[in-house]
Predict the 3D structure of the following.
Amino acid sequence: MWTTRAIFNVSFITLTAAALSVGACSSDDTTPSGTNTVDSGAPDTSTNSEAGSTNPGGFQITSPAFTAGQPLPDSATCKGQAFGGGSSPELDWTNGPAGTLSYAIVLKDFSAVETAVPDHAYHWAVWDIPASFLKLPANLPPMTPTLTSVGNAQQWEGGPSPTATYFGPCPAWMNVCDPSMTAEEDSYAFIVYAIGSAMPSVPAMPATGNYVHMLDDYFQSVALGSAELHFTSDAVPATVPAGFCPAPADAAAPTDATADVVVGDATASDGTAPDAVAADAEGDALATDAAHD
C-alpha cells in the first residue's frame, strides 16, 4: 500500500480450499507443519481433469525460495532497487479441485487491504495459466504481457505506473524520505486460484483504478478453490518516484509578509499559485495519501 498505517504481522501461512462438490476428507490427510488449512468439504483426492493427477494433500502453494510466514528474499522485493522493483520468485502448487481448467496468481498486501486506499494492496496478477502447469518459474520477464514459458499466460502489475511486470513488495519506502524511521513491515501472500474455464472472461482493463484489484475480485467470484502462501517484507527501495515524499513538516507557511512563493522558475505574487506551485501541492497531497506496497 502507499500510506503509513498500523501493521498486521502475520507469522503463519493460511491455505484455503473450496470446491463445488462435497465429500468427506480422507482419513490419512495430513497438514504440513506450520500451516493452517481450511477445507470446504471437497474430497482430498480431487483429480484435475487436464493435469490428470490426484491431489491427496489438498490444494496448496509453496515456493523453494522462502518458508511460509518468513520474509520474502530481498531479490523478490524492492530492497536496494527502484520502487516496486524485484524479480518474481518461483511458485509451485498442487492440482486444484475437480474441474480446474486454468489457474491465476495474485500478489496481495494484506496489511493494506483495510486501509483508506485498498487499491494499493494489489501488486501483481498472472492468469490464463493452463491447468497442465503447476509452477511459475522464477524471474519472469518484465514488460511482457504474454508469458510464453507459462502456456501464454498473461501478467499485469498494480503499481502507480502499471505495466506487464512483476511489482515487488516495497512497504518501507518512506525510509527514503526519512532514513530515521523504523522500517515498516507488511504481511503479504501469493494467492493461487483454481478456475473452471480454460480462458476465463476477465473484466476489461479500466481507464482508472487498479486492474489487479479488479482481477482479484473476479477470480474470487469464479474460483473453484484457492490457496495462500503468506510472507512478510520490510524492504526499503533505493529510490521512490517524484512526489512520493511529503513536504517537510517544519516548512514555513506563507504569510502576508512573504506572499511570493518561488518554485523553480515560477513565482506567485498575486495570490494565485502558478502551474509549478499547483503541481507541487498536488504532489504533496499524493504523497501523504499514497506510495508503497
